[in-house]
Amino acid sequence: MNKKNIAIAMSGLTVLASAAPVFAAVGTPSKEYITVQKDYKDTLKKIKAGIVSGAITDVKVTYDKDKVVSEVDYKTTATTLSAKKEAADQLSNLVDSKLDNLGDGDLVTFTIAYNAAETIHTEEEIVALKAKLEDTIVAKPATETAAGVVVADSTNTKAADRPIYLKDLFDFAKDTDGAGFKLTVTPKSDISAIDAYKYADNTKGTWATAKAFSAVSPSTAVVVGTGTVYDAKSSFKFDAKGSNATVSTMVVDTLDDAATVDVKVINAKETTIDIDSSTSTSAEDLAKKYVFDEEELDKIYEELTTDDGYGNKVQLVNGRYQVALYPEGKRLETKG
């Protein structure tokens, strides 16, 4: 799809967007996501996963714009992991038949309240993270030309028989955390078990000049639990510039994203238009039949007319520009 041609076509859509009366126009909330019927199972799967994780705290289901069939406050009614899983299955059972048999013009809206601060970690997640961190290597055995772990060889040093792991410097404890689980990381109060190991630039130095290992102790233990996630990039930094070879403690990121969004599943026919082709269906024909959000069209047009010609709205696929448009409603056909 040529960028210039599609930009011209988008300009035509913008002009025609307010050229005729409409029916079945869908109101646009502050945040709205639209899914076509053929993709509803993937959408429903993601909603269920959000309920189980605790991030989705409330879901209202509406059929055909105004028929509310269910609203559940999962934060207060599903306070255990098993209850969250059961609630997610109940939602699936409620809407699956409706979504599978959407008629022309039918609509199912999920009004979803989510709060990332409520996200829990399953036991499987915490067990896997604990095992991964415990076995993370801090320093490998040194060689004649590479820095690493050494042991005493009289007054000199030689390569150690093993690496130093995070579990040599920190305690990792799994525990329950509300409906989920948490991992608490604490620097060991006693690391005498690795007194026989030090860090050196190579194996050619003396034992006296090699550096002992230590963990940088925070004022409190660090916890990965509800509403927090492990920050791999910032955690457990190794530093051998000082008098000791130190390792910083774990760092976590706090999840605080929260909003209410509409996820709409529609029975829509997908039409692909190649502006360069001689197909009988053109962008102008669509604009005469359907109404598109003018602000959305403006954003797409702005991306098309930038130097790159693509961005969040427009994708560059195999050297061709591609956009996806969802109409707000169908135009009335009038005689005259």
TrEMBL record:
<feature type="signal peptide">
    <location>
        <begin position="1"/>
        <end position="24"/>
    </location>
</feature>
<dbReference type="InterPro" id="IPR043090">
    <property type="entry name" value="Low_molc_weight_S-layer_N_sub"/>
</dbReference>
<dbReference type="InterPro" id="IPR021071">
    <property type="entry name" value="Low_molc_weight_S-layer_N"/>
</dbReference>
<feature type="domain" description="Low molecular weight S layer protein N-terminal">
    <location>
        <begin position="32"/>
        <end position="284"/>
    </location>
</feature>
<protein>
    <submittedName>
        <fullName>S-layer protein</fullName>
    </submittedName>
</protein>
<dbReference type="Pfam" id="PF12211">
    <property type="entry name" value="LMWSLP_N"/>
</dbReference>
<keyword id="KW-0732">Signal</keyword>
